[in-house]
Amino acid sequence: MLRLLCVTAHPDDEAGGFGGTLLHYARKGVETHVLCLTPGQAATNRAGAKNDDELAAMRRREFAAACKILNVTHGEVMDYPDARLYRIDFYTAVEDLTRRMRSIRPQVVITMGPEGSITAHPDHSMVSLFATMAFHWAARNNRFPEQLKQGLDVHKAQKLYYTSATFTIPERPPVFLPPITASVDAGEFLEAKIAAFKAHTSQTPLFAAVEATLRKRGAKEHFHLAAAATPRTVEQETDLFAGVAAD
Ligand SMILES: [Zn+2]
Questions:
Q1: Is the pTM of this model over 0.90?
Q2: Domain containing residue 124: CATH number
Q3: How far is the CA of 118 from the centre of ligand 1 (A)?
Q4: Which of 26, 33, 131, 175 could link 7 by a cystine bridge, Cβ 3.0 to 4.6 Å?
Q5: Which phi and psi (to 5°) does residue 62 adopt?
Q6: Per-residue pLDDT tens for 16-43?
Q7: What's the number of domains the chain is made of?
Q8: Three-state DSSP class for 182?
Q9: 154: CA distance to ligand 1 center in Å?
Q10: What domain range includes position 55?
């Protein structure tokens, strides 16, 4: 069985940055998982929510609806504070993600780059750091050994990718995106990806701008190979599972 894990920061990241790739691999019979660290309770667009808890509940429902459109096998919104991931305890977040990696046992992990992806959001940067450490530490028996005593095994995922793009957004802080080493052709899923984004109805004021960005991204979703289980030179890939062994 092949398994893909996508680690994000906010409900809606899964659609905009990774939606085509999630649909592409679901179509191929890969089990797909999305872990979203925050319920997006700090969003500017609040859809009339009276407080953070109400907005979080709304956004959890929207995330579930988007995951359904994206044929995600299992999606989970965790409970970390939106817009404050750089203030939380690093070790706790990595422990949490390591536990899930050891449970889900993905061969391939996709997440954002440490620059914060095209929006340069600090939460995206932190998710990158947490997920990268969890990718490496899930494989080591001297990291979080209490999880091993509780019945989990170490897990060596085979590839870690950061999302990338062929353009940046001028209105956002300047970022240097990681060099593209893999491009997944997900053109046939573009409309479904936009529909998944629009499942996040609390974010309606963003729809026009995001749709324009997604159409600009076009058919391909681009990635950067950030780590691999075996030493290798960089090649341009069209399949994130190239060379990956099922288990
Ligand atoms: Zn985000």
A1: yes
A2: 3.40.50.10320
A3: 10
A4: 131
A5: -65, -40
A6: 989 999 999 999 999 999 999 999 999 9
A7: 1
A8: strand
A9: 29
A10: 3-228
